[in-house]
Amino acid sequence: MANTFQLEILASDRPFYVGAAEQLVFPTVDGLMGILPGHESMVTIVSPGELKYLVDGEWHYAAISEGFAEVRRDYVLVLGDAIELPEEIDAKRAAEAAERAKERLLHKQSIMQYYHSQAALNRAMNRLKISKRHNHEI
Questions:
Q1: How does it sit in the membrane (predicted)?
Q2: Class of domain 5-84 as given by CATH
Q3: Beta strands in the chain (DSSP E)
């Protein structure tokens, strides 16, 4: 097997992936973070977006919401509030959630409600983008 590290990707409701990985790429507030075996230790916030990891030469993709990652030289732990494979995403439901969030943004609301509506819209749009990118039949 190629040079790998132990990867654990855990969603709030289930273990998503546990095993060896060759590379990992995930979104942060500063942009995409790439991890290779031997990476310097760190802890960082994971932003909503596309997470991808390389196992046995094949890339695997997922939509991830907010979370954080702990990186060590030979081990990476990614915790996400919600993590979904592209084929698990209900595109119709995500589109409906985006429309509801857009509608809420048009109404007068407190700053906290605005941020919640904006976050809901971002999550829905992220799910739609990943679903469309990786499910060619949609």
A1: Peripheral membrane protein
A2: mainly beta
A3: 5-11, 14-21, 23-28, 31-35, 42-46, 49-55, 58-64, 67-72, 75-80, 83-84
Q: Let me know: does 60 contact 53? Beta carbons within 8 Å.
A: yes
Domain map (residue ranges) of the chain: 5-84, 88-134
Rg (CA), the chain: 16
H or E element at residue 98: helix 91-105
CATH (residue range 88-134):
1.20.5.440
Q: Which of 32, 50, 31, 118 is nearest to 89 (CA)?
A: 50
